[in-house]
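Standup notes
- DV: blocked on the single-chain target, sequence here:
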Amino acid sequence: MLEGDELDEINPEESLRTFKDLLNESQDDENVETETSAVQDDVEELVLQLYKAENEPILTRGKHVSFLKKSLAKLSVYNEGLDSSRPWLCYWALHALNILGKRLEEEDSLKVVNFLSKCQHPTGGFGGGPGQYPHLATTYAAVSALCTIGTKAAFDSINREGLVRLFKSLKLEDGSVLMHVDGELDIRGVYCAISVAKLTNTFTPELFENTGDWIAQCQTWEGGFGGCPGMEAHGGYTYCGLAALVLLGEVDKCNIPALLRWIANKQMRLEGGFQGRTNKLVDGCYSFWQGASFSLVNTILLNEKKCSFNKYWLFDQRALQEYILICCQHRQGGFLDKPKKDRDVYHTSYVLSGLSIAQNSPLPLIIGRRNSNTVESTHPLYNVVHDCVERALEYFKKLPIPD
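- DV (later): unblocked, structure below
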């Protein structure tokens, strides 16, 4: 399937792609223009202009830190639609700051803990804001944010007994998990529940009985995972499915060769970033959703002794960093989906997470100026910085698992 040492041929000091090289990587529409091929041409032209300028790939760290800190304090009126996603806004900003090597002052951290406590529902789990019903997505965001803060006050604010009640109320007999009571059902709920359960030591095999089998049904003929059985393969859902299987210890239920073939073909030849689905445009957030899956696959193959290499991931790490640093940075701080799009906290968080994944292969690979471009390592299973994950796991393992 995979030859043991073929990745040893990669030279970490190899120069970046040249504009001349990129001209040969544009799409071939086979002389049949469609609406999607025309939009793809437009994106490639924008990206080529940026690469042609030959700007040095430099992480403008200070501008991003300023943007994120302002986002924690106040958002514009255009974010009104995110009123039910306020724990996500906390998590995205805190996690992105952490990747950049910045932590909040104790007083500011306590303000976030107090706010998230108000989002916690009396029956268990976190809603999208104070007084809102519990939801697995915002529960994942809130717990991840609190683990990112990593103080005793943050850990102790989590109602672990309530989490177990929430999981039990949302778990169905076939192994699937609802996002909220009487809500939609998809693979995100499975991942959010298992990730939170593992982080907070509320996981039991009985709680997620049959879940691995349900996840396996979500893997499509393409090789990626859809939101539910029968849906199209999608980068975010694929990450959720694969990470959940790893956390469950049931990766044998995933067709790894098919998955690897699918995610390898999601990296765009010219842009260097990832698309989320077949025949879609590049999007900066998939730097993490697709990129982290390679880290997980590499570990799976090593554990199964199906390969002997362990230096680099199975995608072009330089090209992804090049796309992130040259095409996705906003001049005033923050990251974007693709050129000509606006910045937001969501893309800032996941683009930086993808940059972290691209840099932190077993043998680190960092393009440009190492001192200015290096970021912290995020955990590919939880997307929380490694030392924060270790601190949370160590804290909660001392506590008994709630019934």
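- Follow-up: The first helix runs from residue 19 to 23.
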